[in-house]
Design goal:
159 residues, alpha/beta, 7 strands, 36% helix
């Protein structure tokens, strides 16, 4: 079983183990409201780019758990390429989680994708395209300053 995710408290985990941990977390307090969030961020380095995708299960008003996956790619040539790749990584994780949710009868947990784009800065010109890509795939999209899954959690592990 491939351990592609890391939990700060539980260590390396496969996506199925992350999913089981999420279900355990939700079932511990089933009357609470939960948000399932996926966000990705990247950091260019001299000879590669570090990409991090995060899965956050937020128990509204009572904290959260998160898991992250890190990968490295050869240098990308533009910010646009990196932002689209970040979104595609988030969509991949969200699609795989959606399948696990559907198979287990937990299709009621909606997934939001937090994007590393905002109305201020270089990425503002990409908002419509990136949000359209995510919403066209059936997920809710959040941009900065409301996209903490990308801009805070995933960003923390790109350094």
């Amino acid at each position: 079983m491939r351990k592609e995710f890391m939990s700060p408290t539980r260590g390396p985990m496969s996506l199925r183990q992350v999913f089981a941990d999420i279900l355990e977390y939700v079932s511990a307090e089933p009357d609470m409201n939960y948000r399932l969030i996926i966000g990705s961020d990247s950091q260019p380095r001299e000879d590669h780019v570090c990409f991090v995708s995060a899965i956050i299960v937020h128990r509204e008003g009572k904290g959260a758990r998160y898991y992250y996956s890190k990968r490295y790619q050869n240098k990308f040539f533009s910010l646009r390429q990196r932002i689209f790749y970040e979104a595609s990584l988030s969509l991949d994780v969200a699609s795989r989680l959606t399948a696990l949710l559907a198979d287990s009868g937990h299709g009621d947990l909606n997934i939001e994708i937090h994007l590393d784009v905002g109305k201020v800065g270089e990425t503002r010109e990409l908002i419509r395209e990136i949000v359209g890509m995510v919403t066209g795939s059936g997920f809710e999209a959040r941009i900065k300053p409301d996209s903490y899954g990308a801009s805070k959690v995933a960003d923390k592990y790109t350094k």
